[in-house]
Amino acid sequence: MDLDTLKLNPLGLTYAFSIYREYMEYRLTIDKITPQTKEWTSKVHLIKKPRPRKSKDGKTRFQIVVVQDENEDKVAAVLYGEDIEKDAHKLTPFSTYLISTAKVRIPLPYRVPTNRFEWVIDRFTVVEEVKDDNIQDPPLPPPTRLNTIHFAYLQEQQQNKEFGNHNFTHIIAVVVNCGSIKYDGANSNKCREIIIMDTGMNSFILMLWEDFDDVDGSILAAQVAKYPVIVAKRITRTTYGGLSLSTRYNSVILINPPYPQVGRLQNWVADNRPRLMRYSQQNSSRAALSLVMAPEDNDIVPIANI
Known about the structure:
The chain is built from 6 helices and 16 strands. By secondary structure, the protein is an alpha+beta fold. The chain folds into 2 domains: 26-130, CATH 2.40.50.140; 151-289, CATH 2.40.50.140. Strands 1, 2, 3, 4, 5, 6, 7 and 8 form an 8-stranded mixed β-sheet that branches. Strand 11 and strand 12 (203-209) form a beta hairpin. The N and C termini lie far apart (82 Å).
């Protein structure tokens, strides 16, 4: 029934509003949803979607995504087996969804919990995308919370450890160089080196291994001339080729995601593009930590004046 028809039929309009009111009564934020909650719907933003992986015994294929609500409270949602493919086209990063009556349980003991509960999205769960043109119930605004570690502190992190505490979770950086595919390591694994940089012109090698090389590396190679900004989650510090960073099986690489911090870094790129171009042209990816930015003319000082 369209709106014009409802205006001509007061009873129809009253009925429509009663349905909408009842629907909104079931709309809950993440912190209100427990295993005992029945008939609920939550409006959430998908902020993290790692690749599917298998259990240690190889028998179970699963994927863990992270969603957050209007209060930026987060919860992990788990998909298994065929449900991963069924909802693959629905669940895209930074889109808004109405998720209804997913199973709610206590997180499994071997996982690092995002919340005191986690959801299981299966064939009985209703997942509906909120479209951009939905005026009555618009999508959630882009997320704002992003805890990042400064490059200057990377030396302090333990080798081969994730930045796993609550203050050091993510890296945000500009990609200034992207190497080609190669095979390295004890098992000749496929990989790709990229150089990332912060606003202090500090640079690091980030190694993309296996499918991160295929998927994210290919995108970055095509965009590197534009100096894309990435947010890298759950990466490790290694001594590969000197001090460097590396992806893990559960890492996530987000390219130009809609965080305000990314927008500010993109503005910095626009202001410093000539210097970044000079850097890319004069330096190789194998020496990210020993490279020196080419000086500006007004930074050159005669030896006699030193």
